[in-house]
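discrete fold record:
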Amino acid sequence: MSLHFRHRCPTSGVCCYDTWKRQIPSTTSEIAVALLRQLSPRSISRQFVKPKDFRMKTAFLCTIMLASLSLQANAADTRPNILFVIADDCTFRDLGCYGGQASTPNIDRLANEGMRMTHCFQCAPMCSPTRHNIYTGQYPVKTGAYPNHTQTFDNVRNITHYLKPLGYRVALSGKTHIGPQQLFKFEYSGEKNNPDMAAIDTMISECAASSTPFCIFACSNEPHSPWNKGDASQYPVADVKLPPYLADTPEVRDCFSRYLAEITYYDDQVGQLLSLLKKHDRIEDTLVVVVSEQGNSFPFAKWTCYDSGLQSAMIVRWPGHVKPASTTDAMLEYVDITPTLVDVAGGELDNTLDGKSFVDVLAGKTNQHKEHVFGLMTTKGIINGNASYPIRSIRSRTHKLILNLQPDQLFTNACTKSKEFKSIVAAADAGDEQAKWVVKNYQHRPAVEFFDVLNDPLEMHNLADHPEHQGTIADLKSELAAWMKSQGDSGIETELKANSHKKKRETKNNNAKKKKNGSRPKNSTAEPSAAGTN
């Protein structure tokens, strides 16, 4: 509708209505004019407003416009706040609600209030590529962030680029492991590499006072080794149930007990964060996501492409949108997280992203999302890692294919230097058959591994040589090759180039260490050095 008033501002000479119309949404203009016409149809027309009626009409028009703007603001506020909580080196099946022996009452309660994903995966089984995977919505080789302690290419966008223009405050509290600094424009805080509860409390309070939506990534450093937090007496060594793919030694039992205690410590952090939402009356309008990250640092988990390394817990609570106590076996990936968060925030999805929104899964509209999920492992640059031992994988709902591209060497990493693994080697040397199996299958890999994950979920029986599976193996190899090509992944050649980003970052970090104390403010918008050692 086009409408012009003959009454003009005595200072600017501009029609008052024209001025207002430029400052407010057209839909608001239409509503206001329509209502005013119904009030006094003879005093307003497409020609003019009588001067003697102008003050009364303008006052009423202002009231209508302000009310309409208020309605629009309230509609915008229906976008959820976001709280994303991530563990560090936690095998998903060790959580209580996933059948594990760790006591996780807060996470279990959250699962009862929301949706539990049974087939969530990440692409790389170590910290830095995983974090970049989450925040960028793209796979690691494509962004350049595929080795550990690395950073993305300078042209890669991340979650801060998508949510901040939508009016969100976007914060990261705790472990970082991302870069480069100038690209990841979070509001940073942290307390000894863990979430700073006081800083998060303050931010939630400020956002509530200003009606500003928030997206907070609360990044724990637990249960990352050395497993020195939590009450290990809660898990007596003699009572600990070890996974069947581990050997039973006193050292393994002791470490596993302390690892379980630290999972419970992480669960308490989740509980504190949920309590902050309750404190500020933000439960009903906050989307909460809790994930477990890659698996623990025992054999066959972290640093491997087995499900114990790549599969993750994911629990989502979103009151009014996600059905309580629900589950889904839709296959999801961490690369889907950024597209999903942008989607629920009302933003436009970037067609350069590899992931896709799973909002329909959350809404219970579908139980399908992806046919395949992918994995890669780069040993170059990790503690005690091989100079080059690239691993690639693809998983369907029923089968897993792993390609070890340079298997003619001993597989090594920080795990093989640990006291628990050394105890397994000693047991193997002493004749323990289970220990022999662990050492052989962990350190001496064939070129191809193939598993029936429905009947062998712990991937202990390699079926790569079985004739009846050759067709499925060929199909998965073809799918994996196509994915690698789409990512610019040349396998061994890509592995050898892995440190091109790491070297640049290490130089920056080494320079930072020369500064006094190598420290930063407790709350800062500057990105700190990558934390952790492996």
Residues 1-52, 66-76, 505-533 have pLDDT under 50 and may be disordered. Residues 250-279 form the longest helix (30 residues).
